[in-house]
Amino acid sequence: MSRPARRVAALLLALTVTGPALAQEWARNMFDEKDHDFGVVARGSDTVFKFPVKNLYKDDVVLESVRSSCGCTSADLEHPIIKSHETGYIVAKFNTRTFTGIHSATLTVQISKPMSAQVQVRVHGNIRGDVVFEPGSIEFGQVDQGAAQEKKISISFAGRSGWSVDDVRSSSDFLEAELVQRERNGGRVVYDLVTRLRESAPAGYLKSQLILVTNDASNPRIPLEVSADVRPELTVAPDTIVLGEVQQGNSVTKKLMVRGKRPFKIVQVKCEDDCLAFEKSDAADTKQIVTLNFTAKGEARRIKAPVTFVTDLGETFTASCDVYATITAPPATAAGP
To answer: Averaged over 241-252, what is the pLDDT?
Structure first.
């Protein structure tokens, strides 16, 4: 029995013998984070944190429910049935539109399988009533890779005179922001914040923040959430290629297709495993058929080989897939008389 299997077996035996107290500890071990500070946030901002829950065990884990101790925070489950070694999430959303000031909440997670247990996590933060975002976050939605996008939100402040936003800082190289003061009258000031998603943004889900740096010495930084779903220019089908068992010295051939939204050429196929070779066309097209040749070289082993297709559209526009195979030794030959 492997070491991980022995650990799981010992854990399940201990749970049977010692009962609920250890069951709680078993459940808590799946939560790497049990406390989150939202910090100082603006009224109306979309403020969400996801507590990851990783199933460390062989059996499915079922998150039955989650409840919040305070109306300042709503809670929900994302992927409540968690397979072995996969991850689900407890989603905590700070209700910044109906609450202001310092608030905290305890979220109680009820687990029903493989056995009953409860785990508690906490969130807390300070919702400023004098700063308001409209809308509460910058959401670009679905964007084609290579297409620049622009969104504008309003930032208003009501309080002491002289308050200002002095800088806007981005945690992502693919975002840029421009701040324009639209109105100032006594203790009220309104800014327009224009945020641009750059053409160089890579394919995938982008989740980032802009930080408003103010001249308020007590709370100088205010975060603003930014998200975008950048749809890839190029895709590979299939994106996972499973060749199965291949005996040493034998070869397997597969075909795959790389698709684009405009004609392109594949100028290079990158793969570090010398068992793999590729045949491709030199003509430009929106569909490229690539022939994959796998030869089982070397010792018996399992292979996971990432493959990247480089195109003439530029270094930003690549596509990738993974190739899995198991090289096996030939069957033993019976000794002669």
So the answer is: 94
